[in-house]
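Field log, afternoon session.

UNIT: design team B
ACTIVITY: writing a sequence onto a fixed backbone
BACKBONE:
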């Protein structure tokens, strides 16, 4: 889940309980990143050591003549560091990333050390973590980081080691790309074995220099989130929707003249309905605009969305609505209510965040084309959303929860908001209608990847893992044996595997078209760049053109390869 306190607690508990053993191990080794200190940091420089552990590295930096400040979230480890290195008195502080750090370490610093910390940062906090590092580093300052790139004690596909610590092993190239996208320039990179001599553990150490240079697209996105006035959650919702479209519905975008990309306003509004639904339908009032909790004017579409949610109270709630929408089977009254919400939400998007984003700098970040019903975005901003959307999206969700808590003056707990903001994706994961369809094809049903005959104990699996796309469109759902699905986990099928299974994949799609004649074409069109009609204009649905199978397969392969490139996802063969 996205709650940082929940995610970090298990790791922190390990260091609290095992502080003596951990400190002894740290103190007993030499080399590793510490051997590079004289080449990265200079005498007299202010250096921040994040994740100080036993204090060994901070003490070494102090010996080199650096003015060191250190932070460590574990109280027990800070106590051990103070006992082992009394010279660090007044230099050890409590703190963790990406959360707020004590004023003594606000920076700017000449250098930052981040040794063996990045593995403990969950994916959804990575973006904000790098921003926090950047905010504390002066122009031209150095960042020295080390992180594990191989650990045999972490099972494939897992994110925790045997002791329960969060231990995300990321490829060095992925780490490098993240930092370079945020203005860090790689100066040197080293690969090494484990300084403690543990077999099966490999490290990479990187030396970056930070340069602000010109305002990058990612800085403009950050400016929208931070510099502009924060009176409503609208801008967060807009950025989240753009990230989702950039990651999983990029076929809906259009490259325009003048270096811009356009997105249909209706697509953004449809995502807003799903984002805000759990918040509006919550038993506990969750304000989304300044003053709303005190009876001031509510968000523009609250009443309309509440009416739609009330209609579906006995029809499955949000999951029931999402299924009916996907099947294009909304009852007439539900269609009327839905059109009303879309209309008000669309107007709110255009007159709110689209108009005001960038106002703090006097620059319009977005524009509206009323004739085409599309939002225009600068191409370089769109590229950043495409390349870093999964980090930005999760960071936005965290900020959204924080802002809701603030708007409620603390009456609403941040964790409760996170539960609501993530329910939309979880609700879409399991599609019982698709499973029942596949069950009806037994005993002739075969595993999509191995072609082996399936029993009733089969899985409906996502070819592009749900963890990467959060997409349960019919073209992405295939029958698979439980064993094969368990082995595949959150990995992407290899290019060769997909090519070998082209005919069974297409044949499976043909059966789905027959069973879901409205839903499948609609979802396939979104992937294959066919023109869609808006819900209020729909008459007979979307028709697939002749030869749609090969066109869809081409886009299917493209989506897999795109996801592999952007997310650095592992590939898989049965």
């Amino acid at each position: 889940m996205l709650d940082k306190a929940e995610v970090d607690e298990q790791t922190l508990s390990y260091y609290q309980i095992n502080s003596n053993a951990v400190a002894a191990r740290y103190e007993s080794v030499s080399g590793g990143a510490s051997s590079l200190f004289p080449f990265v940091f200079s005498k007299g420089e202010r250096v921040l050591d994040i994740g100080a552990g036993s204090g060994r590295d901070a003490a070494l930096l102090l010996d080199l003549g650096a003015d060191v400040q250190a932070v460590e979230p574990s109280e027990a480890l800070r106590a051990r560091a103070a006992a082992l290195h009394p010279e660090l008195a007044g230099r050890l502080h409590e703190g963790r990333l990406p959360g707020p750090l004590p004023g003594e370490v606000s920076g700017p610093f000449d250098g930052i050390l981040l040794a063996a910390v990045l593995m403990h940062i969950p994916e959804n906090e990575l973006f904000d973590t790098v921003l926090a590092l950047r905010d504390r580093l002066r122009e031209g300052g150095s960042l020295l980081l080390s992180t594990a790139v191989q650990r045999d004690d972490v099972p494939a596909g897992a994110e925790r080691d045997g002791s329960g610590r969060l231990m995300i092993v990321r490829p060095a190239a992925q780490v490098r790309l993240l930092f370079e996208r945020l203005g860090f320039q790689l100066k040197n990179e080293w690969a090494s074995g484990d300084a403690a001599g543990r077999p099966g553990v490999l490290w990479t150490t990187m030396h970056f220099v930070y340069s602000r240079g010109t305002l990058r697209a990612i800085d403009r996105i950050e400016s929208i989130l931070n510099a502009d006035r924060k009176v409503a959650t609208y801008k967060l919702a807009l950025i989240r929707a753009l990230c989702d479209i950039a990651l999983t519905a990029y076929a809906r975008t259009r490259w325009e003249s003048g270096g811009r990309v356009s997105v249909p306003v209706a697509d953004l509004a449809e995502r807003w309905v799903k984002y805000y639904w759990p918040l509006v339908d919550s038993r506990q009032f969750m304000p989304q605009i300044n003053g709303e909790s005190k009876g001031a004017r509510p968000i523009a579409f609250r009443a309309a969305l509440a009416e739609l949610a009330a209609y579906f109270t006995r029809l499955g709630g949000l999951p029931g609505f999402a299924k009916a929408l996907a099947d294009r089977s909304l009852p007439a009254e539900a269609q009327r209510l839905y059109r009303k919400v879309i209309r008000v939400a669309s107007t709110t998007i255009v007159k709110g965040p689209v108009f005001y984003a960038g106002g703090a700098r006097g620059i319009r970040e977005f524009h509206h084309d009323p004739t085409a019903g599309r939002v225009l975005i600068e191409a370089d901003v769109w590229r950043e959303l495409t390349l870093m959307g999964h980090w930005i999206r999760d960071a936005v969700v965290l900020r959204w929860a924080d802002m809701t808590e603030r708007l409620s003056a603390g009456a609403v707990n941040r964790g409760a908001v996170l539960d609501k903001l993530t329910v939309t994706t979880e609700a879409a994961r399991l599609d019982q209608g698709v499973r029942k369809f596949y069950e009806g094809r037994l005993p002739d049903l075969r595993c999509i990847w191995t072609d082996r005959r399936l029993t009733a104990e089969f899985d409906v699996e996502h070819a592009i893992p749900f963890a990467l796309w959060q997409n349960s469109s019919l073209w992405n759902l295939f029958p698979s044996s439980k064993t094969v699905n368990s082995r595949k986990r959150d990995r992407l099928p290899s290019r060769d595997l997909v090519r070998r299974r082209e005919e069974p994949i297409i044949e499976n799609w043909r059966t789905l078209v027959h069973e879901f004649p409205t839903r499948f074409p609609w979802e396939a069109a979104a992937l294959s760049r066919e023109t869609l009609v808006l819900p209020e204009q729909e008459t007979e649905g979307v028709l697939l053109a002749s030869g749609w199978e090969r066109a869809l397969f081409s886009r299917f392969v493209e989506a897999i390869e795109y996801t592999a490139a952007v997310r650095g996802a592992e590939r898989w063969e049965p």
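LOG NOTE: Residues 134 and 210 are 7 Å apart (CA to CA).
NEXT ACTIVITY: expression trials, pending approval
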